[in-house]
Amino acid sequence: MSFLDAILLGLVQGLAEFLPISSSGHLVIAQNLLGVQQASIFFEVFLHFATVLAILIYFKKDILAIKLTEIKLIIIGSIPAAIIGVLFKDQIEVLFESVVIVSVLIIVTGIINLITDRKLNTLEKTSESKLEHPDVKEIGIKEVLIIGIFQAFAILPGISRSGSTVAGGILQNIDRVKAFRFSFLMVIPVILGASSLQLIEVLDSGIGSLNFGILFVGGLTAFVFGFLSLKIFEYVIKKARLEVFGYYCISLGSLSLLLNYFVK
């Protein structure tokens, strides 16, 4: 792997991990259609840890002020993804080998973004017209379980985890900022757990030769752009502009399908 490959993969991982466009889907397309060299599993795990570090720093105040009740809700919300991940691990990994499936699922992510955007805009118009505004829900066990199911669905390559979980909150009339915040607090144990399991498997089978320069460059790129993508996504949520990501995902998925068809 070259330094350019490491930068490109770190950039894709950092931006796409937290924006509602699916990092896994982008990595599959980049590796299979754009000629970017496939990363080693250890390199991918390292990138995931780099993006988790971005979350920890971005939400440091929220994490330091977190309450026991929220910790319990985060654990409950992580259960559906953990169950699906363990039971269907092998079947899900096979999906990563199909550019067609990933492209279709990226289009689904685009549709999710458009639905969420419409919900946000409907709430804004309702509020501006001074009509009765829907009750804003607090995040309880029922709400967090639904968000957790959305997160479990996002295990599929091409489905955005951030887009799905934020949608799961907003579609339940949870305040958009609270939905954004909780979505990323909830992802911390999921990414750490999944990455730790991958790391254990890699260590058991041997990590091979390592280029620490490439690891550092890729990790730093993923961290910087991961932090940037968090700021962008929070701004977009507040301004209700998710349709941009919706049309982008639909366009990317469609283009990927066309390229795959003609290449074949």
List the SSEs and their pairings:
Layout lengths: L2 H16 L4 H10 L8 H18 L1 H5 L3 H20 L1 H7 L3 H30 L12 H13 L7 H10 L5 H30 L6 H28 L3 H21 L1
Write a brief caption for the model.
With 264 residues, this protein is mainly α. 79% of the residues lie in helices and 0% in strands. The chain has one domain (3-263).
Would you write up a description of this structure?
The protein is mainly α and about 260 residues long. It has one domain. The protein has helices at about 5-20, 25-30, 40-60, 60-65, 70-85, 90-95, 100-130, 140-155, 160-170, 175-205, 210-240, 245-264. The longest helix is centred in the middle third of the chain and has 30 residues, at about 100-130. It is globular, with a radius of gyration of 18 Å.
Helix and strand pattern = HHHHHHHHHHHH
Count of alpha/pi helices? 12
From the spread of the alpha carbons, the general shape counts as globular
Which structural category do the helix and sheet elements fall into? mainly alpha
Domain count: the total is 1
Based on the model shown, name its key terms:
mainly alpha; single chain; 264 residues
